[in-house]
Amino acid sequence: MPLQLIATGGTISSTGVLGSLEARLGARDLLSTLEGTPAGAEPDVRPLDLTTVVSSALTGADLLQLHRAVRTALDDGADGVVVTHGTDAMEETALLLDLLHDDDRPVVLTGAQRAADALAPDGPANLAAALQLAAHPDARGCGVLVAFDGEAYAARGVRKVHTLRAGAFAAPGYGPTHRVAAGRVELLRRPVRTRPWVLPAGTGDLPRVDVVSTHLGADGTLLDAARAAGARGLVVQAMGAGNAPRGVIEAVEASCAAGVPVVITSRVPEGPVAAVYGTGSALLRGGAVLAGDLSPWQARTVLAVALAADPSDPARACARAFARP
């Protein structure tokens, strides 16, 4: 059975002078870079061009359109799906797709750190590895994966950890799920899957959820402004294991009282948030929910999907989202 390749733009599709890169290449162009390689001998890959943008320009509506394209490909009999995507927002897109993914067949995201016309582009190798992984039985049941620089990571917990390095992704505290090298796929661990969310029919966009960081001297001004701008949920990037200045705590209390749920994450790149200090406990007493070890941006994705799935009761949706295994 065939694989489906969905191209969405990003550096892997980009050409041009550094600083003026533009996504120009489509799915067929990307497949042509594999001609003459073992990956190029893949018998049946169906190409689809969904969009051609840098990932920082994507919207919630775009991500739901991508989800529908993945679902259609699987309904049409694809054995797996590979999505080429910009690296800047890949961790958010991967998790959204994973939260909605209800199939054992794999979905693999990949991209590049260097443009397609660079002296040594990394896109072809990443694409080849992603196709090999998507076709491999050890990828089944693993949900949505990010394949990059010879390794693959589960969607939940993956982060872009370097702005320029070829090995741009990691999963702090977890490590990779697979290694893809020399044409071989090695399973290192099976990620724990969560029950998929189901969105109401006709959902065309995600509700607004804003991320607000904390720092010494921070107050509630930005949280109040986000709520006033229409945020349906808020994610606080707290200090350490989940601590914040008094002004932030007061704004969190006000938001929760107004029916706008607040999720607490950390500025620290590894480890969970936990109410082990007085200010962390105060955030919980004010109604906030802890995000475990999710990054602020992945916590935002979870909250947005939960609010879209259960719009009638935001507090209930938030509590359920972050209590799920």
Automatic annotation (TrEMBL):
<dbReference type="Pfam" id="PF17763">
    <property type="entry name" value="Asparaginase_C"/>
</dbReference>
<feature type="binding site">
    <location>
        <position position="55"/>
    </location>
    <ligand>
        <name>substrate</name>
    </ligand>
</feature>
<dbReference type="InterPro" id="IPR036152">
    <property type="entry name" value="Asp/glu_Ase-like_sf"/>
</dbReference>
<dbReference type="InterPro" id="IPR006034">
    <property type="entry name" value="Asparaginase/glutaminase-like"/>
</dbReference>
<keyword id="KW-0378">Hydrolase</keyword>
<feature type="binding site">
    <location>
        <begin position="87"/>
        <end position="88"/>
    </location>
    <ligand>
        <name>substrate</name>
    </ligand>
</feature>
<dbReference type="Pfam" id="PF00710">
    <property type="entry name" value="Asparaginase"/>
</dbReference>
<feature type="active site" description="O-isoaspartyl threonine intermediate">
    <location>
        <position position="11"/>
    </location>
</feature>
<dbReference type="GO" id="GO:0006528">
    <property type="term" value="P:asparagine metabolic process"/>
</dbReference>
<protein>
    <submittedName>
        <fullName>L-asparaginase</fullName>
        <ecNumber>3.5.1.1</ecNumber>
    </submittedName>
</protein>
<feature type="domain" description="Asparaginase/glutaminase C-terminal">
    <location>
        <begin position="208"/>
        <end position="311"/>
    </location>
</feature>
<comment type="similarity">
    <text>Belongs to the asparaginase 1 family.</text>
</comment>
<dbReference type="InterPro" id="IPR037152">
    <property type="entry name" value="L-asparaginase_N_sf"/>
</dbReference>
<feature type="domain" description="L-asparaginase N-terminal">
    <location>
        <begin position="5"/>
        <end position="192"/>
    </location>
</feature>
<dbReference type="InterPro" id="IPR040919">
    <property type="entry name" value="Asparaginase_C"/>
</dbReference>
<dbReference type="InterPro" id="IPR027473">
    <property type="entry name" value="L-asparaginase_C"/>
</dbReference>
<dbReference type="GO" id="GO:0004067">
    <property type="term" value="F:asparaginase activity"/>
</dbReference>
<dbReference type="InterPro" id="IPR027474">
    <property type="entry name" value="L-asparaginase_N"/>
</dbReference>
<dbReference type="InterPro" id="IPR004550">
    <property type="entry name" value="AsnASE_II"/>
</dbReference>
